[in-house]
Write a structure and sequence with these properties.
about 240 residues, mainly alpha, Four Helix Bundle (Hemerythrin (Met), subunit A), two-stranded antiparallel sheet
């Protein structure tokens, strides 16, 4: 498989990069929905290249670095250009700052991932992946393209962009995609949730993709908040029990 399958991951990475490039071009031509779907398509391609590389035994350090370069274009630069042309141009200089902060946070996230990457899938991510951040922005624009103006205001978009940027440079844990070997209950649960989400998206992608991405974001934040509360309360409970004894 190594001899015949080494080029397959690179095909998906290049396809991811091409989608990101097209998304920038479509954004500049004010075709925002098409650009958004291209970013989402790049996200699905990005989810496949690493898995195929591991499956074929062709994972290399060069492949990891090349994939990161493609991701920075498709999920860093492309969403930033899309946001600027869609809304942030109204903010003038602040719009440029928001774009740069988002791209810089994405670059930081990728650099940290590459620094700690050891060729073994951990099952979770430290900080929200740039892929998910870019796809969330794209999903928002698709969601608001049908007249749902409540979440399409420039204020909401600004808050979401800042939140995604902060989450990328944070160390909050986010669950990764399941592997090929479904050996644990957690992996099986991931497959079930992923399958149900895919069915919902296929039924009505315009209205369901963004809410599902928001759920993914909130799950990481809630789990992180719960762990802080647990660490804070646990010593107090132990000290109370000791006093009662």
């Amino acid at each position: 498989m190594k001899k015949t399958g080494w080029a397959l991951p690179y095909f998906f990475t290049v396809s991811n990069l091409f989608c990101g490039f097209l998304a920038v071009a479509y954004s500049l031509n004010e075709q925002y929905v098409a650009a958004s779907w291209l970013i989402i398509a790049a996200g699905f391609l990005d989810g496949l290249d690493g898995k195929i590389a591991r499956f074929t035994g062709s994972s290399t350090r060069f492949g990891v670095e090349f994939d990161s370069m493609a991701d920075l274009i498709s999920f860093g630069v492309a969403p930033a250009v899309l946001l600027y042309k869609y809304q942030f141009y109204r903010l003038e200089f602040l719009g440029w700052i928001l774009m740069f902060f988002y791209i810089a946070a994405g670059a930081f996230r990728l650099a940290r991932f590459n620094l700690h990457f050891k060729g073994v899938r951990e099952g979770y991510f430290r900080g929200i992946p740039i892929t998910m951040a870019g796809m969330t922005i794209a999903a928002l624009i698709i969601f608001t393209s049908n007249g749902i103006t409540i979440v399409g205001t420039i204020g909401t978009t600004t808050v979401l962009t800042l939140l995604l940027s902060i989450l990328m440079i944070s160390t909050i844990r986010y669950e990764g995609l399941p592997g090929f070997a479904l050996t644990t209950r957690k992996e099986k649960a991931k497959v079930l949730i992923l399958t149900l989400s895919a069915v919902v998206i296929v039924i009505n992608p315009t209205f369901t993709f963004f809410p599902l991405m928001v759920c993914y974001i909130l799950c990481g934040i809630f789990e992180w908040s719960f762990s802080i509360v647990k660490r804070t309360v646990k010593p107090y409970i132990h000290s109370t029990r000791n006093r009662n004894l």
